[in-house]
Amino acid sequence: MRKGGYVALEAVGLVITALAAQTAIRGLLDRDSEVLWSILDWVPGGLTGRLILLGCIALVGMVAGGWAHTRQRPNTGRAGDSAGSRDQGTT
Question: Would you say the C-alpha torsion 1, 7, 56, 23 has a positive or negative sign?
Fold first, then answer.
């Protein structure tokens, strides 16, 4: 995948995370509101089932966005990566 594809996947992941998390929080605070205009009425478990599904969708969006973010520049060092310090100090 090219860099533009990773950027697009990261953006989509962030948008999905933001929308799903906002909807889940709104569903928790205002129990009388319809979650996503009743699109999720097919989910078993009532409001609890819908909120669990929204949480899972937010988690998937977060993981996809994070994965795409780490793949944009594979040659840069990451936190905790000891690739730059290998073979140092040996004589």
Answer: negative
First to last CA, the chain: 41
**Alpha carbon distance 59, 62 (integer Å):** 5
Closest CA to 10 of 79, 53, 65: 65
Residue (of 62, 50, 80, 64) closest to 17 by Cα position: 62
Other beta carbons less than 10 A from residue 11's beta carbon: 12
Q: How far apart are CA 17 and CA 39, in angstroms?
A: 17
Q: What is the pLDDT of residues 13-66, one digit of tens each?
A: 999 999 999 988 998 898 787 777 778 889 899 888 988 999 999 999 999 999
Neighbours of 72 (CB within 10 A): 15
